[in-house]
Design brief:
heterodimer, A: mainly alpha, Na+/H+ antiporter like fold, two-stranded antiparallel sheet, 19 helices, B: 2 strands, globular
Amino acid sequence: MSATRSGGSSGLRMPWAQSDRPVPRRVIRPLQSFLDAETASGILIVGAVAIAIAWANSSWRETYEHVWGTELVWRLSRWSVSDDLRGWIRDGLMTFFFLVVGLEIKRELITGELRDRRAAILPLVAAVGGMLVPALAYIALTAGSSAERGWGIAMPTDIAFALGVLLLASRRTSPGLKVFLLALAIVDDLGSILVVAIFYSSHLAWTSLAAAAGICVAIVALRRIHVQADAAYVAMGVGLWFALRSAGVSPTLAGVALGLLTPCVPLQRPRTVSEEAHRVADETVDDPVPPDADAAQWFYLADLARDAVSPLARMESLLHPWSSYVVVPLFALSNAGVPLTGHALAAGATSRVAVAIVAARVLGKTLGISIASGVAVRIGLARLPRGVSWRHVIGVAAAAGIPFTVSLFVAELSIRPGTVLDSARLGILAAALIAGLFGFLLLRAADRHPAAAPR
Amino acid sequence: MARPTGDHVNAEHGLRLPWSRTERPVPRRVVKPLQSFLEQEAAGGAFLLAATVVALAWANSPWWESYDQLWRNTLTIGIGRWAISEDLRHWVNEGLMALFFLVVGLEIKRELVTGDLREIRAAALPVIAAVGGMIVPALIYLAFNAGGEGAPGWGIPMATDIAFALGVLTIGARRAPANLKPFLLTLAIVDDIGAILVIALFYSGGVTLGPLAVAASLCGVIVLCQVINIRATAIYLVLGLGTWIATFESGIHPTIAGVALGLLTPAVPFQRPRAVSEEAHRVADKTVDDPVPPDADAHHWLRLARLTSEAVSPLARVEAALHPWTGFVIVPLFALANAGIRLSSTALLDAGTSAIAIGIVAGLVVGKLAGISAASLVAVRAGVGTLPSGVRWRDLLGAAAVAGIGFTVSLFISELAFTDDRLADTAKVGILAASLLAGVIGFWLLRWAGRPDVRDP
């Protein structure tokens, strides 16, 4: 953003949002730098949750169910796709969220922290521990009940919230700790995606699944022969979504697959593009006659400049704001509206699902991550990142216990609508609150003991 | 708005080519020849012609029932109790064709702001010619149909099909004076304005004021957003979609929303080209070839990409994005959905004796030629307009005949004018026959005008 503002001196005309009018200056620009912060998404989600809960417990509570239960249907003669708005957000819009997750996983694997296999071992082991222990705890606590299928709720970490707590709690977070949490959360995402794909798919239709696989192969083939037209890949993505939908798999996995298949190498060498940029800048004139006579040249340079960036970075810069600031808050708004009447709270507190979720998340996650990391370091498999103490690891482990987006998602997939699902949602909200506070306090405490950090 | 073509330019700069421009067998033998064909101006007309032939062949084949059934399938989009439900033919005519009319709106705006229509003195001749070419055909049609069941179809022979007319002009008149094409283009665009006004004023159903007010205020919001320099495409997409839906609900033909959006698109770039050039130099100098981490320069490049497109007017950008789709997909699809009429001997006999078909043929073939030529002659004689330099009367005669190809917009109006399928089909036979005749006559006239031994009449 700072780069855009520096343009003000070079004769560029600023769009409304970057102009010096009162609303942009006082509202929009502070808002934009706010949105740039990594924690912003978390704050927006908290707001959406608060609105959802307030709405669902207000005197208009009927409209909450009514709005999200509205059917949206596409019908072509006898063939139709129909779901309620909540379902469209869960299966449709959330595909973009999972697409961004897929992009992040791919980047971490190829050019990021997980590229160095040795450095990746600690978060990998920690994440596995942090998935197994909560899942086992959940199963132990719900064995035999109708909620047993929901063990996947206990596994995923919410990156936005966990990162938000970490940044809020410690002013001088070591980069090592942040990277550890990010890598851990990304392995977690990968695990949750596998769980959703393998365990929460109903009545697999193998022909559709084969079609989906075929589409993935076709995407790879198109990349191989250097097809660059966006429309081709958009069409493939839509096809993949429908194929997975009719295969009985969560169609959001189409997003993950597309994310992982997106190339992370630019189509053009930056130097070549630089040379073309100089040439086009020299050849175009300021006042062409007729106007737009240079349009073809400018379009050509715009395409090239985009091609100097990897498709992965392009997609991410295009979709990340939509995913974090629109899709996930909408998802929270449509799912977090649980009734908080005394009756419902009492039912929740005594329900096995809710208790299991809270226990698995708050204790299971913290213990699982800490113990797995401890074992890995003791047996010499991995080392703690520089400047990170065990207290920090335990604090981060607690923050990783915050369940949210993906947990709600898994709850929707695994538990039938009704009181059990409501209790599960309540459990997720309670666990998020408790784990968040717990993590915050532990991280604060860890910061006060810098001397304890091993070198 | 084709990109600078030619690998010879790019290859030496070390750029990596996309599949379609490589030397692999399929691109070399299929895609590249296809692309160079698409860059020609006659290409849109060729696609349209092919779609018309396919539609006619299909509708008169043993599988003609599948043709009817396909276009009768209903596509419904519904939220709760609100739904838009139309058959596929109407989705093409009212939905996709809104994009065609958006491009028409863009062309009109360009002509008005930076093109030939900017100066009314220079544009007087094509404007007067176009008006003559609308009034005379409509009067001829009414002479055959006034008071009859065909009377509502008077708007049909008023239209000119730009794609076909340009195609015939390019193929038929290789030696035509350079100024003939702009003349025909301006004339056809004025024709489009006329057709749009006719559709909006005379062929719109019972108008509901509520949704109309919503549509108008959405247009107001679009203007407001432009005034305060909002540039986010997503906002205009949402507002545009809303305008279309409101127009649809108001009873006015929803393609009019496309025209309005086209006219509202700014014709001036957001950035001064010089500022962007300077920025391009700066970014090119600042970025490195192998950044660590990869994509460390991404925000510079993406910013340059955005600035670069802002050196071009939104009008040209929208046109570049939509024109290939309207020319090669939407208008041919429209012809495929609307031109398939059964040409049984009885149907042809019906049409041959029907005042509707005769009125259309006479209006388009004779009326256009006579109306445009006479109006031009009067304008020039009266000193209001002058012939474009290099254009002779015989060239103008050829262009006037070519303007009689009413096709797309004529078919469009025939669908609006007649609710009775039998009348609509008769009208369509007339439109096809008239377009064919006008094309052949125009082609022949242009050829004749191009012969070196012909004197100006």
